[in-house]
Design goal:
This protein has about 210 residues and is an alpha+beta fold. The chain has helices spanning about 5-25, 30-50, 130, and strands at about 65, 70-80, 85-95, 100-105, 110-115, 135-140, 145-150, 160, 170, 175-180, 180-190, 195, 200, 210. An 8-stranded antiparallel β-sheet has the order 9-5-6-7-11-3-2-13, with no helix packed on it. The protein has a 3-stranded antiparallel β-sheet with strand order 1-14-12, with no helix packed on it. It has a 3-stranded antiparallel β-sheet with strand order 4-10-8, with no helix packed on it. The longest helix has 21 residues, at about 30-50.
């Protein structure tokens, strides 16, 4: 029900909630109610944020699935050294209310991992693709290469990526998350046919972004 990536954060918020609840005993009634409401809201939001619902991976071959829940805010052509010329960039914006567990878009092997330190612009600002902190991941299955990035945001300051170079992965598998809202950018090669448009809502591991 809850992702293991958020277990540390859940424990911290739970502990703080217990301490705040104990401190509320020493407040007058009105202050006690306000403090308990704030504590309960923070705890419920944390549990909601780190939810990890079950997903059904499409039973199809030669597909590329969404690595993140959210809303597609950009689809544009882009040349990339990993995926080649005439590639297509698809950007997915995740609000704090989306599921934040990230999933693998295609079967293959992890052949590229590169962490970029950077700024913390708002995730819906397209300049964040280049300037923000991010983890870049490349997967090669012998037929196509796909590159995607976990990009931090104004609130999202913690990128979790559990992948390793040469690791074999399957489409739809969980591999990490970005804590408290951000975006995931994925670049599909020219050989892939993109089937999504800006404004479309995605579900990680279920929504098909492209076919090849």
């Amino acid at each position: 029900m809850f992702t293991s990536y958020g277990s540390g954060s859940i424990r911290k918020v739970l502990l703080l909630s217990l301490l705040a609840s104990a401190a509320a005993l020493f407040f007058p009634f009105s202050g006690k109610v306000v403090l308990l409401l704030i504590t309960l809201t923070a705890l419920l939001f944390t549990l909601y944020f780190f939810r990890d619902p079950k997903r059904t991976i499409p039973d199809e071959k030669r597909i590329i699935v969404a690595p993140a829940d959210g809303k597609i805010i950009l689809v544009q052509q882009q040349e990339n050294s990993f995926t080649g010329k005439s590639s297509t960039l698809v950007s997915i914006f995740m609000s704090p209310f989306n599921v934040h567990v990230n999933r693998i878009p295609i079967d293959g092997a992890v052949t590229h991992l590169l962490y970029h330190p950077g700024q913390f612009r708002m995730a819906f600002d397209n300049r964040s693709m280049e300037s923000n902190e991010k983890m870049e991941i490349g997967i090669d299955n012998g037929e196509i290469r796909v590159l995607f990035s976990q990009v931090s945001g104004f609130l999202a300051r913690r990128i979790v990526c559990m992948l390793h170079i040469d690791e074999s992965v399957k489409a739809g598998e969980k591999f990490g998350m970005i804590k408290f809202g951000s975006r995931v950018d994925i670049i599909l090669p020219h050989s892939a046919s993109v089937v999504v448009k800006p404004g479309q809502i995605t579900r990680a591991g279920e929504t098909i972004l492209g076919r090849y």
